[in-house]
Design brief:
By secondary structure, the chain is an alpha+beta fold. It has one domain. It has a two-stranded antiparallel ribbon. The protein starts with 24 loop residues before the first helix and ends in an 8-residue tail after the last strand. 9% of the residues are buried.
Length: 66
């Protein structure tokens, strides 16, 4: 289970970042057009967390390679 701080937005402090499944269809449409879209496939991005206020995208640790 993730702690409260791990799920809050580091840019705007919104209390909870959302998973892909928690986003509405409209929010998913917007996320697909964010700048990070070019660096990750849609399947990879579905593992990230998103802030619906400022659109910060937190890359999950499992997607980052050493």
């Amino acid at each position: 289970m993730k702690s409260f701080q791990e799920k809050s937005c580091p840019q705007c402090s919104l209390p909870k970042l959302k998973t892909w499944e928690e986003l509405t269809d409209e929010q998913k449409f917007l996320v697909e057009r964010l700048p990070l879209n070019t660096g990750f496939t849609l399947e990879e991005r579905k593992k990230h967390l998103f802030c619906p206020r400022c659109w910060f995208e937190k890359i999950s640790d499992e997607n980052q390679s050493c």
